[in-house]
Amino acid sequence: MDGGNAANAAASGAAPGTVRVGYARCSTDEQDVVQTEQLLGLGVPADRIYIDRGFSGTTRRNRGGLDQALAAVWPASVFTVTKFDRFARNMAEANQILTDLSDRGVLFGLGGSVYDWNDPFGRLFLQTLAMVAEFEANLRTREGMALAKKNGKLKGKQPKLPAPARRSIRRRYAEGEVSLADLATEYSVGRSTIHRIIHGPPAEPR
User: Same domain, yes or no, for 81 and 126?
Assistant: First the structure.
């Protein structure tokens, strides 16, 4: 069975009368409106939509809306999101939440489809989505850091000791004045730092 067929086999529609509880994570006002309208279109009652506004990060910390949504579901209800990365953007978080929902008898709704975490195909499909969400989040973080560095807003790792100190360390060690251990003690750094200074690229000229 290929990936598309596996996903179709794992997904189903919500049974008539099933109550959905919706969750949205929005970093902009536009996302707020769009996701709310989508959740309403999926049959989520307006008073059962929980939103975290102004969040664009990858962690669950301080996401009161998510905590409220998870507390509002009950057995046979459907915890519903419009996109997978709206509720989890890494494998560990997704596994934790989906396992908790499954243990409580709650189904997971992704758009118009409903998945059972206990179904092997459903679990495989959702884990794949979690991997993709984590990859995309990491990629965006790297791109953001690269852009910040290009614009001078993110500096590379700075040496622990200034250039004059590094030149002095090289000279004194080369002349046999002090040992590596003595230099580490004198400058209050680890021996590995002194070793890198001595055996690394030459210090920049004055």
Answer: yes
Nearest to 201 by CA among 164, 170, 157, 179: 170
Question: What is the distance between the alpha carbons of residues 164 and 141, in angstroms, rounded to a whole number?
Answer: 35
6 has a pLDDT exceeding 50: no
Neighbours of 141 (CB within 10 A): 12
In whole angstroms, give the CA distance from residue 89 to residue 108: 16
* pLDDT per residue as tens digits for the range 105-115: 999 999 999 99
197 CB-near residues (< 8 Å, 6+ apart) = 161, 166, 169, 170, 203
Residues 74 and 169 in one domain: no
Helix axes 180-187, 163-174, angle to 10 degrees: 150
Compute the distance between CA of residue 117 and CA of residue 183 in angstroms, rounded to an integer. 58
d(CA 4, CA 60): 30
Token pair of 114 as six digits: 């409903």
Q: Letter for the amino acid at 27? A: S
Q: Which residues are CB-contacts of 11 (< 8 A; sequence separation ≥ 6)?
A: 110, 113, 114, 115, 122, 125
Half-sphere exposure of 201 (CA within 13 A, CB side): 4
Predicted structure pTM score: 0.61
Domains of the chain: total: 2
